[in-house]
Specification:
CATH superfamily of one domain: Ribonuclease H-like superfamily/Ribonuclease H
Helix content: 25-40%
Radius of gyration: 21 Å
Strand order of the largest sheet: 6-5-4-7-8
CATH topology of one domain: Nucleotidyltransferase, domain 5
Order of helices and strands: EEEHHHEHEEHEEHHH
Shape: globular
Bound molecules: zinc ion
Length: 251
């Protein structure tokens, strides 16, 4: 929850459920819950969500309408999307991958007039070894965006391993220790020099996203947030996961 006026996220609770911004002292109201459900119903939906069941199955098992279930799931994903992780420290793997479009379709170039194509959807990700993964949907391979995100996500002085793409130039100048991984070489002299952790996450992400079939373009980032969350919480038990989401909902 942040102030609509100055987007500061610190507030005092004031009368009748209002919130008072600590910074600019304006009063605002938290947005109403997206859907009216009892505590028990929320818990049921969260449980089936954690178990990765489809909307149809959740409806069937809970007796809640499809509309409400979809609203509730979307709300959970939005909360996951707005989660902020601590800044990464230590050894970080960095990579970017293309989502949702086949890279080359040579046979089409000849038969079709070039249509105005939508911009590429690129997932930029970073994985802190022994810790979490972060990923964000960006529009295209853009050096400046990548640098900006890295500055925001990773503490200066950290060691960054990236692939040798031209999109990761000179990270030393912005305060990182930078090593490039040469992916097509079979022998690694330095055993630590790899981005296998992140490659593992890409594999996981792509399997999950493609198993969902088509996702509306504007919702991809919400699903991305969901799978980042699932990946980061994969070692937790089902019970712990449910508990974490319930806590998130109460915020
Ligand atoms: Zn404010």
């Amino acid at each position: 929850m942040s102030c609509p006026n100055c987007s500061c996220d610190k507030y005092w609770k004031v009368r009748r459920g209002g919130l008072l911004c600590v910074k600019c002292r304006s009063e605002y109201r938290p947005p109403p819950p997206p859907v009216r459900l009892s505590k028990y119903q929320w818990r049921t939906i969260v449980k089936w969500f954690v178990l990765e069941q489809s909307v149809s199955i959740i409806c069937e098992q809970s007796g809640i309408s499809r509309y409400k279930v979809m609203k509730a799931l979307q709300h959970i994903r939005k909360l996951m999307h707005s989660l902020t992780l601590d800044v990464f420290q230590g050894v970080v793997e960095v990579d970017a991958t293309l989502y949702g479009r086949v890279k080359t379709r040579p046979f089409r170039n000849h038969t079709h007039i070039k249509k105005k194509r939508k911009s590429d959807q690129v997932v930029f990700g970073a994985l802190c070894r022994g810790s979490f993964v972060r990923a964000k949907l960006v529009s295209g391979y853009d050096v400046e965006t990548f640098r900006y995100l890295l500055k925001e996500w990773v503490a200066p002085g950290s060691k960054i391993y990236s692939s040798s793409f031209k999109y990761f130039p000179d990270l030393k100048s912005i305060g990182f220790v930078h090593r490039t991984v040469k992916l097509n070489k079979g022998i690694h002299l330095d055993e630590d020099c790899h981005i296998n952790g992140l490659k593992g996450f890409w594999g996981y992400l792509k399997t999950k996203l493609s198993s969902r079939g088509g996702i509306r373009r504007e919702r991809v980032s919400l699903y991305l947030a969901e799978y980042v969350w699932r990946y980061n919480n994969r070692d937790k038990s089902t019970k712990e996961k449910i508990h974490t989401i319930i806590k998130l909902l109460k915020k």
